[in-house]
Amino acid sequence: MFQQLSFGKWILRGLVAGLVLLAPVVEAADTNQVSPPSADLENLTLEQLVNVQVTSVSKKETDLFASPAAISVVTQDDIRRMGATSIPEALRMVPGMDVAQITGNEWAVSARGFNSEYASSLLVLIDGRTVYTPGSSGVFWDAQDVVMEDLDRIEVIRGPGATLWGANAVNGVINITTKSAKDTQGGLVSASYGTEDQPITTVRYGGQLATNLYYRVYGKYSDHPGLESSTGSSTADSSTSLLGGFRLDYEPATQNTFTLQGNYYSGTAGREVNDVTLVPAAVRIIDNREDNSGGNILGRWTRAFSDESQLTLQMYFDHTRQGDGVGEAMLDTFDIDLQHQFAIGTRNDIVWGGGYRDTEAKNPPSFFLTFAPESQNLQLGNVFVQDDITLARDRLHLTLGSKLEHNDLTGFELQPSARLLWTPTRRQTVWASVSRATQTPSLAEYGRFNVAAAQPPSGPPVLVSVLGNPNVQAETLLAYEVGYRIEPTKRLSFDVTAFYNVYGRVAEPVSIPTTFETSPAPPHVLVASRWENAESGDTYGTELSVQWQPVECWRLTASYSFLHMQLQPDASADLSSPQQQFQIRSCLDLRRNVEFNGALYYTDRIATKSGSGMVPIDSCVKLDLGLTWRPIKSLEIGLWGKNLLQDQHAEFGSQESALITEIPRSVMGKITWHF
Amino acid sequence: MYKPDFPWSNLRAGSLLRPFLALASFLAFLPGADSGFGQEPSPSKYQVEAVFLFNFARYVEWPAAAFPATNAPIIIGVMGTDPFGDSLPHLIEGKMVNGRPFLIKHLAADSAVGNCHILFVSHSEASRMSAILGQAGALPVLTVGEDESFARNGGIINFVLKNDKVRLEIDLAAARKAGVAISSKLLAVADVVKGKPE
Description:
By secondary structure, chain A is mainly beta. Chain B has helices spanning 19-24, 45-59, 87-92, 129-137, 148-152, 172-178, 184-189, and strands spanning 60-61, 74-79, 96-97, 100-107, 118-121, 142-145, 157-162, 165-171, 181-182, 192-194. The radius of gyration of chain B is 18 Å and the shape is globular. Chain B has a single domain, classed as 3-Layer(aba) Sandwich (Rossmann fold).
């Protein structure tokens, strides 16, 4: 406790010093900004009016309402009100998203089924950079630390976004964008402390280097204590994380914008893992401490030729390192992407582009998991084109497109889609789509997992393994979706979507005849299965959401989702996602700058992997409540209670360990200071 | 891959809209809309232009014959697609300039423009600009537009977006032809003034 207090004092001293150093820059920034901070637009003088910054709205942009896809947006306001301290926590608010906390630092996130700790069917991007790990084909959420206060929004498209976004956007695309440096000027210091997240400290400063050249620099430190399992034992999943980064935006005019951003993070995360050994032939649970670090740098240039035409070029480099005391895994990614948008005549809006990605993965072998080969250099190239055809102006639009990719593992993959958008009246839209998407196999599917070992009373030891298959192919999805939106009044809107997904060539371990193996020593019986594209099946479901603002200061959002999965021959994946989910969120503005916000979530029961078996997880109802107060314009104080209805509850198991971590009731306080 | 202008997935509005803007905007139903807290959002181009239209009435003088009575309303005509949504009606409600209230009219393609005092010609009418301005040119109508063809064909005040700010280009020769007098205060904030002031 005392250690944390002095850490806070150190931060404060650093800030004061920083302020003194940066004061000249702050002053310079002030004289350049003429727009009034909070005067009513109607009362401005002519001189003030000609200097008001307006949001640039190009003719091409349409609102969420007219999108031919199941799309939701989590805004900065939602994140701030609900006190979300991580991206997965923010994703809970999206209708139809399946978000489950596995341990203090791990999450299982998916949409429309197939949730697991290595859920791989979502493409996740942070400011255009993929945070997808080809090793496990998943996202390591604990390594994706961002300054939550500087997030602009999180756009989630449920359903295949493969045509524009590429392979592995099978069940959805999550596009996380941070605010431009222009919009994060000035300083921000926030500190939160709670029973589960303690403490998280963020410092950010943004300024202006020259006309139209804006920057921000930031640092964030978080420390999470470990949680407990259902038996009361500690699950050794404490974690710490340090993040530092910058962003530079050069926006001389709306025609040309440049962005340069980068960050570096370093952290440790604990988890309990199954330690499988052959000598002796046993499985033990041990505490594993991983240390992760990484950095990335990204540059993007956008040139707008006219209201309808725009070119974007983006390049980034990402380095990720993960060490667990046994070996060190490394992933280096270089990616370059081009996108061009233009109109042909009055009826066709074309987007086309291409990209190239070079990934170098190094996965040192451990007894548990051996990659084949250990070091891999993968190259991925793609081209895509999409045409938005106006069949009837402002009434009927048909969007046709396809992406063609080539990857080193499975060769060429074609991902076409067709979307129809009908706007019968200004307040209603109907849309339908058919798309094909593919899921590239993870590198682990080519390697070997030693899952368990045991020594029977007599005879040689037994080893249970999953063998890799060099011929494993990409999984396919054919998705049919429809949606309807209606906004009967300005304060009420409904959005319903339904989908039917047909999955093919889903990879899963298939048993092969038991054999005897002499290597690795000692000789042992091998009970094995091999990855095969043997699974197929379909899923269908619906997502419904309502937004209602009964009075000016009160906003309610509710959503319900239903999912039914039928996979054969192995139906265990059917149970990994809840069949029904419901949530209702309330945002209420009280007097004196106080906000009262709450959310209630219901999640149906599921069955997840736990160690080498399956374990049922009960359905649960969760309640989060939050109060925020802004005593003066630059200070915000927040208090939240999360998971209030139970002392603790389990959400998801892990195949790494038979212990299931329980998520406890928690309280969190946060102070945010803008200067 | 970052796709900032992916046509139908780009939501472009401040997540926080102040109450005044919330009324004007059809985005009120979206999550995050209308809280009144947090950072200042930027208004849209059309919200600022609507406020300009309202202000022009203060800084422009029409010939006496343009108004049938001392309390006859100032008529703002919008020709073509109306880009202002609810922002313009909300703005003029209950307000008066020189003892005159406001009235908004939406004009169809071939309506007579002579009844308006301020005529906003939308971008959608770009192809018919010379016909429209030819008709309005000699009448005491303050023509306001937002594109190049408007400026070329003798429109009086043209809105131009520069560095995300709404700027004015004023053609005094066209104003003189129409018989409307523009206050020097308005001329002072314009970026470009064509023709010599009297």
